[in-house]
Amino acid sequence: MTGLGSLSSGLRALRPAAFGADPGGERLARIRRSPHFKDGVFQNPGGTARTRPSGSTLDFAKVFFDKETRPRRSPQGTVPVHPTTVADLAKPPATGLRLTWMGHSSVLAEIDGQRVLFDPVWGERCSPFPFAGPKRLHPVPLPLAALGPVDVVVISHDHYDHLDMPTIKALAGTDTLFAVPLGVGAHLEQWGVSEGRLRELDWHEATEVGGLTLTATPARHFCGRGLRNTQHTLWASWAVAGPEHRIYHSGDTGYFDGFKGIGADHGPFDATMIQIGAYSEFWPDIHMTPEEGMRAHLDLQGGLAESGVMLPIHWATFNLATHAWSDPGEGTVAAARAAGARTALPRPGEPFEPTAETVPSQPWWRGVAQAPAGGWPDVVVEAAVKATADSAARAQADTAGDAPGGTAEDEGDPETVPAG
């Protein structure tokens, strides 16, 4: 028994700290009581989504290592990161709502006097190891310490490109609270966040922070950080409502009908932050294409294209799929034009106010991306954005005083999925 105990201790010592911790005790008991936990794992809306790539490994390898398309998966020059300064963020937003996309899914939201930081990843790689794994394609716009005080950090799920151990350890030394899906708190406690600063929620549960209501809402994805994945941590999207504004962060998700219910219960939103990158026909259930992302945005807004701004996230920072680096941006522009929807296209680090008259609207990525055959399509984004902004402003004026509100596939080993 002594020998077996020594072996077990040795294996634990080899486990990277970035793997985090498995839920146990009362946390695990609460997981097992969840209505979304069945047959030993958390379930997706409508059943378990495919988390193993469809098709053969050989088919995927042919696409992934194709010499002609592979160069298009990275920028061809230096990504134009906005030189965000402390002064940019020190002045309160004129409209009461400001978003700053830091790259990938990391967004600082300043809403009704509170500062909410979604999925902060300041690490160089989204990986448990500092020497391997997808590396940043652009630097962080500014140091984490330069953000200033953050009232609450919101985590969508525990994949490395959304939950970054070095970043969490740095934030653990501050006074911020953490709102996380059920089970994810085990990782944070392992990395130094005290239990009293955790708000750990199942889907449809909410917590109050500084006058904001943060609600964990469903998403269609999966979880896991270690070599084996027990599906014992939940994934979520998030609706955040303040006295004056409402915003939504999708986390990672495939498209599903539940967006309509989320919009009815918690929207419409002044801004939605929607995952539109790292999609693939090899894993269609767990990530959205730009077209699906726009459909989700419209569902969340009750079908009203002129209502609220869509901010595309989960792209441009890490190479996690086989599509061209610029495709998520181009696809979003095309989908917005087709729907007549208002979309913000900021450079990483560029603050903007979603309810202002104008938002960043130029396809900035074209200057550093390999152009497709035949060149870039013509777009007239600025005029369209301003027109929809004017339309939204008129609609808001007409309704002033109204209160916002609203009323099984194959199961596999998700560690084989190359995207987060």
Determine the fraction of residues in helical runs and give it as a percent range.
Answer: 10-25%
**What is the residue-averaged pLDDT?**
86
How is the largest sheet built, in terms of strand order? 8-7-6-5-4-3-16
* End-to-end CA span: 39 Å
Residue windows where pLDDT falls under 50 for at least 5 positions? 1-12, 381-420
Number of helices: 10
Element-level helix/strand string:
HHEEHHEEEEHEHEEEEEHEHEHEEH
Total strand segments: 16
- Radius of gyration from CA coordinates: 21 Å
Largest sheet entry: 7 strands, mixed
Give the strand content.
15-25%
Q: Looking at the structure, what is the overall shape?
A: globular
Please identify the structural class as seen in this structure.
alpha/beta
Output the keywords.
420 residues, alpha/beta, 7-stranded mixed β-sheet, 10 helices, 16 strands, disordered N terminus
